[in-house]
Amino acid sequence: xxxxxxxxxxxxxxxxxxxxxxxxxxxxxxxxxxxxxxxxxxxxxxxxxxxxxxxxxxxxxxxxxxxxxxxxxxxxxxxxxxxxxxxxxxxxxxxxxxxxxxxxxxxxxxxxxxxxxxxxxxxxxxxxxxxxxxxxxxxxxxxxxxxxxxxxxxxxxxxxxxxxxxxxxxxxxxxxxxxxxxxxxxxxxxxxxxxxxxxxxxxxxxxxxxxxxxxxxxxxxxxxxxxxxxxxxxxxxxxxxxxxxxxxxxxxxxxxxxxxxxxxxxxxxxxxxxxxxxxxxxxxxxxxxxxxxxxxxxxxxxxxxxxxxxxxxxxxxxxxxxxxxxxxxxxxxxxxxxxxxxxxxxxxxxxxxxxxxxxxxxxxxxxxxxxxxxxxxxxxxxxxxxxxxxxxxxxxxxxxxxxxxxxxxxxxxxxxxxxxxxxxxxxxxxx
Length: 431
Ligand SMILES: Cc1ncc(COP(=O)(O)O)c(C=O)c1O
Prior knowledge:
The protein is built from 14 helices and 19 strands. It has helices at 3-8, 35-38, 47-59, 71-83, 97-116, 135-141, 144-147, 169-189, 212-225, 277-281, 303-318, 321-340, 374-384, 407-425, and strands spanning 14-18, 21-24, 29-32, 90-94, 122-126, 156-159, 193-198, 201-202, 208-209, 228-232, 256-259, 271-275, 346-352, 355-360, 364-365, 387-388, 390-393, 396-399, 429-430. Residues 96-98, 101, 130-132, 199, 203, 232, 234-235, 260 line the site of pyridoxal-5'-phosphate.
């Protein structure tokens, strides 16, 4: 958000939270329809998670993985590996999603150097992706506005992909083949490519779902040219799209998996990078012979963060929240689709599971709209009606409620949207 607008408009001050609700400084209850920022996936102030964390603080408050290890980080690594059915063999802990991206970039380049003798290997990302806000993660995503004034040649390339928003289901497979052909030619032209990084659903691009066949063909391409496929599931991991990890709905597996956000339910910061055995093995051996990743953060594998994560995963499993996300995601999608038929300023609903977006038609004009798009204006009005959603762009409103969502919550979301959309339908004009 523009800081000038943030200052001009009184920011929403959240004083406390409880379950699916946030309470502002006037004790007004607001349904957290974006799970904080897709991290508070299990709801706020869950007693069993907080008491587990308190107990952990009394036992071991801190530990650096540089000199030793701790039980919680080992247990969490094992648990994550179990959730991937043993596909990944090792987990590297970070403090955020952006750090997970940075770590993966370093791993991919170092691995390529060790395996092929090629240094500074290029990394290909999808256009309109978001992989974080550190320097390399920003340049990797390559968003024109974000890189303005900070750009340098970091060896990242962004390629388009067939976005479902722009093609009918009949056209999509043909487009997938066209894009894969272009990608293949690009890899041939750049023999120093070390990795391709993708999301499965792009949170910051209107919850755009990357076609499964495109991802499956990326896997084949990576196999053919011996390059790594990194999947960024910082937003989609831990049940958000209806499976533990979104890649598990495909017929293929990545080489590196990035996790963050819901990994620790928003209770404390945590991120993780999962790698398959051959990648881990490539760094094992004598340090003098270059067998070292030389990477880590002071608080990597912090026992409190790992304890919080284990408690969150226990809560997720005990309450069958992955199944709930799948089931309620379908119901919410259908309900929203039905709702938008009544409002001609809404274009479509995109996304998967409980990561959805309402996309508005381009060229909408609202009288009080100066710097802000329709999605921002609607989101501000929704807060007055007790619903927090996230405008990820001028024309898209993200809905990503806690995985504990019920049918009543779905009614509340659609009724509230209907009320606010009706207000707007009276004042909207088109360019
Ligand atoms: C897909 C994706 N990757 C990376 C990040 C960066 O994570 P963090 O904000 O924890 O650094 C985000 C955050 O929104 C994300 O959605």
